[in-house]
Amino acid sequence: MDGLNCEALPVVLAVMAGGIALYLMMRKPTLRAIPFELKAPAESQPGWCKGEILDAPGITVSDRPDLIQCFDPATGRLLGRVPATTLAEVDAKITRARHAQTAWAQTTFEQRRQVLRTLHEFVLANQREICQVACRDSGKTMIDATLGEVLTTAAKLQWTIKNGERVLCDENRDPGFMMMYKRARVVYQPRGVVAALVSWNYPFHNTIGPVISALFAGNSVVVKASEHVAWSMPYWEQMVRRALDVCGHSPELVQFVTGFADVGSAVTGSPEIDHITFIGSPEVGKLVMRAASANLTPVTLELGGKDCAVVFADSDMAQCVPVLMRSVIQNASQNCIGIERILVQDAKYEWFVKEMERRMRMVRVGAILDDEPNQVDCGAMVLSACFPRLEALIADAVAKGARCVVGGHAYAHPCHPSGQYFAPTLLVDVTPDMDITRNETFGPIMVIMKFTDEQDALAKVHASPYGLGSSVFSSDRVRARRVALKLRAGMTNVNDFGVNYICQSLPFGGVGISGFGRFAGPEGLRALCVEKAFTEDRFPFVKTPIPPIVDYPIMDSEKGYKFTQQIVAFAYSESWWQSIKAGLRLGKLSM
Fold first, then answer.
1. Which of 75, 39, 34, 110 is nearest to 368 (CA)?
2. Alpha-carbon distance 210 to 199, whole Å?
3. In the annotation, is 283 catalytic?
4. Residue 502 and residue 202: Cα distance in Å, rounded?
C-alpha cells in the first residue's frame, strides 16, 4: 500500500500544480489598495480647548444667514463657522458629478473595488482619528463611535467588495416556452447621479454608506449632509475624494453639500438627480416625496422607528438585559433602530424593572474627549431643541399612570454647563394610550410596558404607526420566531437588537410611517441601478417571424383572431395534449 502511495505521489503533485497554475492564469487580476494620508482636524484631539464656550449653542449666526455655526454638543465649545452651500453651487456640483459619471460608468467592477479597498484600508488604519472627529461633532463616546461609525462602515465596505459584482452582474432569466429561442436577462445599469440626504446621528457612517453603494453601482453621488454636523463633512468628503484620486479617478464623482432646508429642496427638486435616498423624519420625508414627484424621481425613505423588544419570561436575562441597556444608551439612543419600547411579560416584569432601575441609575453622561478616563458611559445629544418635547412626552405618560423612576429631564452637567445632555430615563408602567408609545423620542429614555401573552404583546406593539426594526427575546426559539414573523416591521432580530445591520447582506428599511424602499444588501445596491430587461436571439438563424395571416394589411380578421387564439392555447395550455391539438389547428389555419 505504501508503495502505491509513493508511486502515485508525483502524479498527485503534478495534478495539484497544474490546478494551481490554471487557477492563477484564469484568476482576474486584483488591484490593490493604494495608501494615502489625510490629517484629521486639530479640534478632534482629546483635550482641545481653543474654541470659546458658547452660552447658548446654536447652528445659526444672527447676522450671517450664509454661515453654519459648528460646536461640540458635549461641551458647547465653538468649532468654527462654515459657509452653507449656495443654490448656484448646488447646481454646479450636480453638473460636475454628471460629467464625471460618464467615464466612471465605463469602469470595471475591479476598478471600483480598488477604490473601496483603498477607502477600507484607510478606515481600518485611522479608526481612532475617525472616531474622535465623529465624537467631537456629535458628542458620542468613542465606543459608540467605533460600533456605530467604523464597524458599520467596515462591514458595508467589506460586503460590497466581496459581493457587489455578483449582485450587479447580468442575471439570466427563463424566457419561457414561447420565447425559448431567445436569451433573456436583467442588466443592472447605473442610474447616473444619485443623491443622499442623511441624518446627523452618525455623521461618518451616514454620509459614507450611500457613497459606497453609489460608486460601486457606477453612479456619481451628491450627499446633502445635515447642518448639525457640518464641521466634520469636509474631512469625510476629502477622505473619499482622495481614495478616488489616488486610484486614478475623478474626485468630482462625490459632491458634498451642506446647508439648511433650501439646500435640501434644491437637491430633491433637481431634474438632474436620478434617485434620492432620504434618512430623516416622516414629516420631512413627505416633503422630499413631494419635491421628487415633480420630476418623478424615485426615492428610498428611511423615516425612523419606534422599535420594540418583546421580552418573554423565559428569556435568558443575563444576555437580554445588557443587550437592551445598549439598545437604549448607545449614542444616547439617537438611533433609528434603537429600542424605544420594551414589552416584558408579567411574570418577569417587576424583576426586570428593578434590574433596569439599578443599571440606569449608574449610567454616567459626559464629554468623552474632555473628561477624565472611565467617567463617561453616555454622550451628549445633538439637538437640545428636542428637550422640551421629550419632557412633555414623559409628563403626558406620568399624568396617564406611568412612573418615571429615573431621570425624566434635561441634565445640567456640572463640568459642561453648555453641553447638551438629557438624563438617562426609566419610564415604567407605560400603556399604548400614552403619546410616548407613538412618537419617536431619539433620546436615552427606556420605556417599559407589561404584557400577558403573545396576542397582548402584538396588539400593544402594533398600536404604533412605525415599523422599522424589532426584537423578540425568548428561550423558546419556535415561539420567538413565530412572534418575530408576526411583527409589522421591516426588520426583526431574535434574542438580539440591531444586528441585522451588521449583516450587510440584508436589506434595511421599514413599513408604515417608517418609510419604504431599502438600502444595504442586494436590494439596496440594485435600487441604485436601472434594472433593464434585455432579450436577444439565442441563434442567429432563428428570428421572430410574423406569419402572413397576421401581417399587415390583415386580409381575414376572423381567421387571424383564431390563429392568435391557438397560439395562446399552444404555448400556455396545462396539458401536452391540448398543446398538440392547438398546434394542429395552427397548421390548418396557416394553409
1. 75
2. 12
3. no
4. 15
**Among 494, 491, 499, which residue's Cα sits nearest to residue 483?**
494
- Cell 446627523 belongs to residue: 200
CA angle 151, 157, 160 (to 5 degrees): 135
User: Which 3 state secondary structure label does DSSP give 365?
Assistant: strand
- The answer to whether the CB of 434 falls within 8 A of the CB of 276 is no
The confidence score (pLDDT) of residue 591 equals: 79
Rounded CA separation 507/498 (Å)? 13
As a dihedral over the C-alpha atoms of residue 212, residue 216, residue 219, residue 225, rounded to 10 degrees, the angle is 0
Kindly report, residue by residue over 532-579, the tens digit of the pLDDT: 999 999 999 999 999 999 999 999 999 999 999 999 999 999 999 999
Task: Give the largest Cα separation in the chain, rounded.
Answer: 97
- Whether omega for the bond prior to residue 553 falls within 30 degrees of 0, making it cis, is yes
For the chain, how many residues are written? 591
Whether 252 is catalytic is no
Could you identify the residue written with the cell 471600483?
A: 112
Burial (Cβ within 10 Å: 0-12, 13-18, ≥19) of residue 385? exposed
Q: Which of 43, 149, 227, 302 is catalytic?
A: 302
Query: Which candidate in 70, 308, 336, 529 is catalytic?
Result: 336
Residue with cell string 426615492: 299
Element (H, E) at 237: helix 233-246
> CA 316, CA 256: separation in Å to the nearest integer?
45
Cell, residue 144: 459608540
Question: 464 — phi, psi (to 5°)?
Answer: -95, 145
Confidence of residue 126 (pLDDT cuts 50, 70, 90): very high
For 316, which DSSP code?
A: -
C-alpha torsion sign, points 143, 149, 152, 155: negative
Please say whether the beta carbons of 463 and 332 come within 8 A. Answer: no
Average pLDDT over residues 581-590: 88
